[in-house]
Design brief:
It contains ten helices and eight strands. By secondary structure, it is α/β, with parallel strands linked by helices. The protein folds into two domains: about 160 residues, Rossmann fold; about 90 residues, no CATH class. The chain starts with 5 loop residues before the first helix and ends with a strand. The model has no long low-confidence stretch (mean pLDDT about 90).
Length: about 280
């Protein structure tokens, strides 16, 4: 399984559930009593699940996050108010008994695994009712920016990343196939688009993101995948153009003239454990 820093997860998942949680409607959270968030990372979705259970008036609902990275779990525990439990464990060998929960869910987990179906089977093993996956389609991300070079370079880097990464980061309909292969029934998928906007007045996270563009640090996070798809020379060339673009972004922010919109499509797939399965 691929590993990520807490900073990277905060950047990619920032604000995803702030504007609305309609995408979670098919999880039927008001009726859930025992929820497991697999590959929870720093706990963004875990906290949302707990909040939705509270909003439904079910104070007795149990919500647990599981992740293989103990450092990320440490961050998740710091952000939690103590109502959520966290366990260390691999998504394909969960430290949870059969039928222990009534909802097993994951966010941006399957795209980072070499065998997504193996993880779905494990989610189905521990759930007595529903399994759900919230997975982005990284090949279909779109960016609009007031800095002319940003959209072009983002697209160039994204295409190379998708080609060079060693897992399928654009699963799309193949999530449904994994659910079917795991024996789940009544499988259905809905697509949503998460919009991230940057505009004046700029949040601290936007300033950090601009600084990382200007230094090339953001691109360097994916150096291995980009080199695998292209070459060392091509990566160095892209990084030079990326840093130049980042300096333009920093200047535009200083003049309060920078605006950016990123559209990230994601699919919410749910399926039920077959009776007697």
């Amino acid at each position: 399984m691929r590993r990520f820093s807490a900073e990277y997860l905060e950047h990619t998942r920032r604000g995803m559930w702030d504007d609305g949680r309609d995408a979670l409607a098919d999880l039927d959270l008001p009726s859930r009593e025992r929820v497991l968030d697999v590959g929870c990372g720093t706990g963004e979705l875990t906290r949302v699940l707990a909040a939705e259970a509270d909003a439904a008036g079910d104070a007795d609902a149990t919500v647990i996050g599981v992740d293989a990275d103990r450092d990320l779990l440490g961050v998740a525990r710091e952000e939690s108010d103590g109502r959520i439990g966290y366990l260390a464990g691999d998504a394909t060998r969960l430290p949870v008994a059969d039928d222990a929960v009534d909802l097993a869910v994951c966010q941006a987990l399957l795209i980072n695994l070499p065998d997504p179906t193996a993880a779905v089977r494990e989610l189905a093993r521990v759930s007595e009712d529903l399994v759900a996956a919230v997975e982005p389609d990284n090949a279909d991300v779109r960016v609009a920016s007031t800095v002319d070079a940003e959209e072009r370079l983002e697209r160039e880097a994204r295409e190379a990343y998708v080609a060079g990464v060693d897992t399928d980061v654009a699963l799309g309909d193949r999530v449904r196939e994994a659910f079917g292969a795991a024996g789940l029934v009544d499988v259905r998928t809905r697509r949503y688009v998460h919009e991230k906007r940057t505009e004046p007045p700029y949040a601290e996270a936007a300033l950090r993101s601009a600084a990382r563009k200007a230094s090339g640090a953001g691109l360097a996070d994916h150096r291995e995948e980009l080199v695998a798809a292209t070459s060392e020379a091509a990566y160095d060339d892209l990084r030079g153009r990326w840093r130049e673009m980042g300096r333009e972004v920093v200047d535009a922010i200083g003049a309060e003239e920078y605006e950016r919109a990123e559209y990230v499509p994601f699919d919410v797939t749910v399926g039920r454990v077959a009776s007697g399965g």
